[in-house]
Amino acid sequence: MEDHIRYDPEQGVLFLLDQRLLPAREEFYACRSTDDVIYAIREMVVRGAPALGAVGAFACVLAAREARNGKNREAELDAMLGAIAKARPTAVNLSWAVSRMRGVWRDRRDITLDGLIRVWEAESELIRREDIEANRRIGAFGAALVNDGETVLTHCNAGALATAGFGTALGVVYAAFGQGKDIRVIAGETRPLLQGARLTAYELHREGVPVAIVCDNAYALLMQRGMVQKVITGADRIAANGDTANKIGTYGAALLARAHGIPFYVAAPLSTVDLETSDGAGICIEERPESEVTCIAGTRISPAGVPAYNFAFDVTPAELIHGIITDAGVLRPPYADSLKRALSREGQRKPPCR
Ligand code: MRU
């Protein structure tokens, strides 16, 4: 699946498959302005760290188109870029993409706004393509870790929908399945917004990969019964020491995996690594509306007046992570060294940032 994030340069519209409606309805949400994209990000029309990176880049293009009508074009564009980068705080890919777009602008300060729009359209498309390619590499590296006959437990959705295409954790599954391995997936439902039950199950089922869903609180029993051989999740931000933020509940899954001697892997592109954050304590954990916890499908399930905590992410300490499957290979502890080395090799491989 690679068509769920589509930009139409003629109309200047970004079309996003509305993930809030899946699996019941496949409808596209049309973003015509920066505010539309910020709304789509905040309300989870689109979600998943690498997908937010690609969408953030296209949002910059819409911002530049809007700035053409402004009085103080540069300042207005600058403010819109700042707002895009902050639409959700935990996934680093969003601010990473906006910084990359800013870099392109900085290097061509004399460019007209129309020129910048064309350059940014190309850059956004490049970010989208690069993410798909990175995920295919993650898949190839990760598939070697999954053996024939194994069951993989995953949490949330780190599939094609959470990226520009193919997926990270699910990219590993797709690649192993594509090699003819008999593998199965158990998808944790992932309360409160059910990305596992709705999205992971939807895309794996569509691709013919055997998948079953479980409540998040079933993980311990599954492991105790020997029903899981690998745990693979995605990541929203990987700190310099390897501490990894991902969907709330990931830390619990990693602790359980350790207690049962099951390898716990994180799959993520290098664009998810944030060397400026030294460890997990420095990662901002998004807190979302209480209503996501107190209501299901619009119906209140808890007594009115009882508050709820709704932390969207947690941080898995590096020592619980068996390996980080990246587009540059499988990194092993100590992550402070392996992450730095992988990123500096990546910097050498890529052409200097225009
Ligand atoms: O709140 P979400 O749905 O954006 O959270 C998504 C996750 O936690 C994913 O596991 C992560 O972004 C990795 S996606 C390849």
What's the CATH architecture name of the largest domain? Answer: 3-Layer(aba) Sandwich
What portion of residues belong to β-strands? 15-25%
Element-level helix/strand string = EEEHHHHHEHEHEHEEEHEEHEEEEEH
Strand order of the largest sheet: 6-5-4-7-10-15-16
Described by its quaternary structure, the protein is single chain
CATH topology of the largest domain: Rossmann fold
User: Judging from the principal axes of the Cα atoms, what is the shape?
Assistant: globular
The CATH class label of the largest domain is Alpha Beta
What is the fourth-level CATH superfamily of the largest domain? Translation initiation factor eif-2b, domain 2
Tally the helices.
11
- Low-confidence parts, pLDDT < 50 over ≥5 residues? none
Overall pLDDT confidence = 96
Most strands sheet? 7 strands, mixed
| Share of helical residues | 40-55%
Return the structural class: alpha/beta
How many DSSP-defined strands? 16
The Rg value, from CA coordinates, equals: 20 Å
The first-to-last residue Cα distance is 30 Å
Describe the structure.
The protein has 354 residues and is of the alpha/beta class. It has two domains: 5-135, Four Helix Bundle (Hemerythrin (Met), subunit A) (Up-down Bundle); 138-346, Translation initiation factor eif-2b, domain 2 (Rossmann fold). Helix content is 41%, strand content 16%. It has helices at residues 34-42, 49-67, 73-85, 92-106, 113-143, 169-178, 195-206, 219-224, 250-259, 291-294, 335-349, and strands spanning 5-8, 13-17, 28-31, 151-154, 184-188, 211-214, 230-233, 237-239, 244-247, 264-267, 273-274, 295-296, 299-300, 313-316, 323-326, 329-331. It has a seven-stranded mixed sheet, with helices on both faces. The longest helix has 31 residues, at 113-143. The mean pLDDT is 96. Residues 47-50, 91, 156, 158, 162-163, 168, 195, 233-236, 246-247, 312 line the site of 5-S-methyl-1-O-phosphono-5-thio-D-ribulose (MRU). 5-S-methyl-1-O-phosphono-5-thio-D-ribulose is lined by residues 47-50, 91, 156, 158, 162-163, 168, 195, 233-236, 246-247, 312.
